[in-house]
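Re: beginner question about structure tokens

> Can someone show what the tokenized structure looks like for a real chain? I only ever see the sequence side.

Sure, here's an example I had lying around. Input first:
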Amino acid sequence: MAIASINPATGEKLKEFPAFDDSEIEKRLKRAERAFTQYRRESFAQRAELMMAAASLLEQEKDKLARTITLEMGKLFRAAQDEIVKCARACRFYAENAERFLEDDVVQTDAARSYVRYQPLGPVLAIMPWNFPFWQVFRFAAPVLMGVRRREVKSGAPRRGRSKRACSSSAEATHLSSCRVQILRTR
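And the corresponding structure tokens:
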């Protein structure tokens, strides 16, 4: 079954995307795992550089991306532009602050040294609504992109083309994975 992007104002089918079969899904999950093992070793400085590049690309493509949101959702153009700007701000915020957020937190225990450490888990799949097509992706992805990085995003309402566009046009150079919290104690 194909996934269609439809203009809500006119009902016009703008584009159709093939749905992934089980084989394609497995292939992409394996690719995400391979990417995770490579990208988890990149420094915060390298990740921040990519996140800043994503912010710049969003700003450069703001009007084009806003037109897509307006065409596919019927959102007012100015509101769509504001959404893109908000995404760029989030990218910059996490590029500038993620390293500090993810520093080990020393905690008091009876051990010689105890601390909380944030460590990568692996690829994460996010299924989310699309009332804010770019913001939904970036509010989730920007902090995680800086943690370690591999992203797979699936729309909770797969009738639009925004999922692919939001990921590929704005942050293709970055990847996503999640972090887990681990309490480490040493004696």
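Each token stands for a local structural state, so reading them left to right follows the chain. Residues 45-186 form a domain with the Aldehyde Dehydrogenase; Chain A, domain 1 fold (CATH 3.40.605.10).
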